[in-house]
Write a structure and sequence with these properties.
single chain, alpha+beta, S16 Ribosomal Protein, Chain: A, 5-stranded mixed sheet, 31% helix
């Protein structure tokens, strides 16, 4: 089973918000998922996402492939975590 970390669209027309999910790659974008690990709101200014970095790193460690957008969020969270430490 190929696992992907990707965005799941929710919200009304022209007012999207997304959940960052771990899902089987074969499932549709808004279909079944394994775990929710964060949220993303593109309409919000500034810090517009939350992410459970420990869960994201776990899934990447066991072979999940993040999408480009989610990968950039993971990298930003890693930089934030190292700056805070």
């Amino acid at each position: 089973m190929a696992v992907a970390i990707r965005l799941r669209r929710e919200g009304a027309k022209n007012h999207p918000h997304y959940k960052i999910v771990v899902a089987d790659q074969r499932c549709p974008r808004d279909g079944k998922f394994i775990e929710i690990i964060g949220k993303y709101d593109p309409k919000k200014e500034g810090e517009n996402y939350t992410l459970q970095l420990d869960r994201a790193e776990y899934w990447v460690g066991v072979g999940a492939r993040p999408s480009q957008t989610v990968n950039s969020m993971i990298n930003k969270e890693r930089k934030k975590a190292t700056a805070a430490a």
